[in-house]
Amino acid sequence: MRKKPPGTAKTTDGAPADGPVDEAPPDVAAQRLVILLSHERSGSHYLAEMLESGSEIVSFDEVCNFQAVNPDTSGASFFRFRHDWQNANPDLAVRPDTDVMSGFLDGYFSHLLGLKDAKKVLVDVKYGHVHNFEPAWSPSENRPFLIRYLDRRKIRIVHLTRVDTLAAVLSDFAAGKAGIWHRRAGAERTKPARIRVPVPNIVQRALSLQREKDNFFAWLAVNLCFSLSYEEICDTKEARERTLARLCSFLEIRASAFVASLEKMTPPVEELVENYGELRRVAAIFGVPGLPARG
Asked: Which helix (H) or strand (E) element contains residue 228?
């Protein structure tokens, strides 16, 4: 018989501490847990910060990103929890079938709910991290196990994407080149340097991301899911307020005057990219929309 690992108590900063903690049953997870599913540079941190400012929801950053959530210090780390669970349940390593993985995910999400005392708990999962929740290898076009698990448990999903796929890819490229991923209000502003981009690579990444978004929209069609876009929460105050009001209704939390200290940091593509003309030509050849004529 497989052993069930004890829950992990937490310190005030969310790190593990000695002693057990109660696990939430699946129906509580359906009531409290929300998965924020998104791709890179889609505004997930901005959205999470705004929702947290309303006091009824708290969030966990990218739990499957060990550079953002340190497995040695954070009780929220997916990899730390999997390590500890696997030690107590070797089947997760040697016989990871759907029942074993479902039990593991029940335990992990219950553990996260035990770390935060709030009406709703938002967990940030990126497209590129969904493979961590697979019981075993499967074809890349198959509906991911995490999506099927959330469907069975009736757990809410907030699906955040950026309509302008090319802008998302360029923002990711520019942030990686500068080593700056977020900017907060009040921080010193400097005019970003124009950059030359590897055009074929950028266009290929945009096409790949668009296919990825299309797949996730199809996979999520029957889930309890609310879809919104970066543009809806970042472009105008009116669009943001309308979108957040609908999102609050979906999450069953109070709407409020949501605020965030994060600010948009990437200028318009035509101002950022030095070889913009080349990028626009290649993007047009491959049918990637979103690039206006300069000026």
From this structure: strand 225-229
- Pull the structure tokens for residue 94: 């040697």
Cβ–Cβ < 8 Å for 140, 271? no
The Cα angle at residue 161 between residues 142 and 214, in degrees rounded to 5:
35
DSSP output for 242-268: HHHHHHHHHHT--------SEE--PPP
Query: CA 45, CA 129: separation in Å to the nearest integer?
Result: 16
What would the pLDDT profile of 65-81 be if each residue is shown by its tens digit?
999 999 999 999 999 99
* DSSP characters over 86-125: HHH-THHHH---HHHHHHHHHHHHHHHHHH--SSEEEEEE
CA–CA gap between residue 138 and residue 144 (Å, rounded) = 8
Q: What angle do CA 200, 201, 206 make, to 5 degrees?
A: 100
The enclosing H or E element of 157 equals: strand 156-161
Q: Quote the domain boundaries for residue 140.
A: 24-165+183-191+216-265
- Number of neighbours of residue 155 by Cβ within 10 angstroms: 22
Residue 262, strand partner residues: 184
pLDDT of residue 25: 58
Task: Please name the residue ranges forming H helices in 126-265.
Answer: 145-153, 165-178, 199-219, 230-234, 237-251
The answer to whether position 287 is within a domain reads: no
What is the rounded CA–CA span in Å between residue 231 and residue 229? 5
- Residue 13 placed within a domain: no
- 126-149, pLDDT tens digit by residue? 999 999 999 988 888 899 999 999
**What is the total count of domains within the chain?**
1
Whether residue 280 lies inside any domain: the answer is: no
How many angstroms separate the first and last alpha carbons of the chain?
Answer: 69
